[in-house]
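Homework help board

Subject: predicted structure for assignment chain

Our instructor gave us this sequence and asked us to write out the predicted structure in token form, then describe one feature. I got the tokens but I'm not sure how to describe them. Can anyone check?
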Amino acid sequence: MRPSLLFLAVCLTACSSSPPADKQPKVVIPAHTTASNTSNPLAKYVELVGFRINEKSTGKLEVQFGVVNHSEADIGDLKLNVTLGTTAAKPGDPPLISFSAKVASFGPSDLKNVTVEVPTKLRVYELPDWQFLKAEFQITEPQ
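My token output:
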């Protein structure tokens, strides 16, 4: 009986040992939205999320996304210039699309859905999937 218990304990110990440590460094994925005018005090509280792009008609894309106010302040009306690129884009590459957007009555801890129609020469199937989009924005109003 004792040899079988000893054998069982050795087997359980061997099976429960931790796997060897992975020596590859972890890849850090950057945030998908960044404010390019960090001088605006509101930039650190505003986030753009959930980009969806549909083709409204030939030459016109419909861009839908959410704008989040992470502050406890009432921002009021917010105007943005947004550029969408890819996560694989190199510095200096042109954006896929650029557009202006307005968020009305942007309250504290608020989430607003925004829909913008954007003229473009690209077709929707030429654009990357949503998880490969990277948005940069500038807050134009309020200063």
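Reply (TA_rk): Your tokens look well-formed. For the description, you could write something like this. The beta strands are 33-35, 46-57, 60-69, 76-86, 97-106, 111-119, 133-141. That's the kind of observation they're looking for.
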